[in-house]
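User: Hey, quick favor. My workstation is busy. Could you predict this chain's structure for me?
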Amino acid sequence: MSTPAAADKVFFQDAKPAAIRLWHWLLVVFLFSSVITVLFGSTLFKTKPNVAMVLEQVQQEGGTISEKQAWVVAHEFSDKLWMLHKFIGYGLSLLFLWRIIAEITLSKEKKLFARIRTAVQYPGNSPENNHYKMVQNTYLVFYSLFLVMVLTGLILAYEDIKFLKPIHEPAEEIHGFVQYGLYGFIVFHIIGVIRADMGRYGGIVSRMINGK
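Assistant: No problem, here it is.
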């Protein structure tokens, strides 16, 4: 078995397979697109604050519109944004499926769960060992959160299916709560990668782009 220091070095400095690198950057695009739609849907395109704007704009043009009609207009923009969010969610679901297939087809030493098992089995309490274990544990947390978001998101997307209706409300609550854990991981991951790239593990970002 490799020493903790050696394993730590290999984990951060070996090149990831092309399929994983492509998956990683597609995930970045889809995750940030999803976050943006949530941000806009909760602020600029929120229905209630935009009702007054619709009323005002119509009145300025000499028209007449009821508050209910203004609500329908304002809600339509919100609906379009959340429909985009739904399609992005479908993309994230496919990416999760892709990662499962990759985990099955990758060589043993490249598999995520093989790395986690190796991290758990390392003896000792050296800083390198603890660092390696921490990284593996955060990935396990990420994929757990990702799975919950995908499953609850699909329940919300297919709300018209009869047998899913009883669990629609709890799924919505879980989806809304777990998203903050995912956001926290994203921030933690970005900070960690920047620190590692500027420190002893320089070149992490470039290796994730070109594999070198």
